[in-house]
Amino acid sequence: MANSITGVNDDIISSGAFQAFVKKMTPLSAFSRDFSSDVARPGDRVSIFRETYPDVAAADKTTQADYTIQDCDSDSVEVVLAQPKYVSWALDDTEVANSSAVSMDRYGSGKGNHIATAVVQDILDVVTNANFGAAGFVGAATTFDVDDVFDLKDAMDDDDVPESGRSLVLSNAYATNLLKDNTLQTNQNAGDGALREGSIGRVAGFDVFTSNIIPGNSENLVGFAATSDAIAVAMRYLQPQEGNTYSRAEPITEQDSGLTLGLRDWYDNDSGTRKRVIECVFGKLTGNATGIQRITSA
């Protein structure tokens, strides 16, 4: 995800709140998504394009007969936006006066991490046995290697999951053990990134992402292989009503992906306190039940 950010003043950018948010949101790159700074309310529906691949056998063409046109099942799904999640913080005049190091922006990065964690874990709480079936890999991080990634690929191939748009999302320990695999380190294409940058890149047709905020979901979840139609995710901006007295109320948007947070910033004259809220309005919908191969530790 790029770093081109619009719709917000420089002090918020420098606080690191949005950069931290964007970085933590990388697991969502695995799924169909519609992120935008367009204004919406909780309960609104966002239509997300979804391309599916039905099991339709090839047909014989008989002499002078018309072609039978088969359904490609390209459609859209409607994701309902839930109540927004938010983080907030405040400093009063005394706190600011007592230390030159204290400022609202100083807390931005931590707050960005907190809201991203809440959003990602809310979305990934649907990655369960009930929704996507038995785990494709079960075992400790020290046993997870390139061979296991190819086994996940094989399982998705058997389910006729499209080869394009596949992603592998791993918790830190599993990604680290994969990096240590000699097969990866000695590969002429992957080895340089693995050794120099600690970056896995692509393996067995998967774009690989590392995340330390994958929820266990009471099922020891530590990662998953996914195709984009497994989950659909939408995100919008919640605009305050007219007549508000916020100093600023605006969307913070990363241009390329459309990832959006809402900023509300104001000063409370009665208490002598500066207050700030960043919030996220989003929704999710499970899709293809064969689109995820779960990875669990036990």
Plain-language structure description:
The protein is an alpha+beta fold. It contains nine helices and 15 strands. Strands 1, 2, 5, 11, 12, 13 and 14 form a seven-stranded mixed sheet that branches. Helix 2 runs parallel beside helix 4. The protein is globular, with a radius of gyration of 22 Å. The model has no long low-confidence stretch (mean pLDDT 86).
Question: Based on helices, strands and strand pairing, what is the structural class?
Answer: alpha+beta
CATH-scheme architecture: Alpha-Beta Complex
Give the oligomer, counting copies of the same chain as homo and different chains as hetero.
Answer: single chain
Tell me the number of structural domains. Answer: 1
Q: Report the radius of gyration as a whole number of Å.
A: 22 Å
Key descriptive features of the protein:
single chain, 15 strands, 6-stranded mixed β-sheet, 298 residues, alpha+beta, 7-stranded mixed β-sheet, phage-related protein like fold, 9 helices
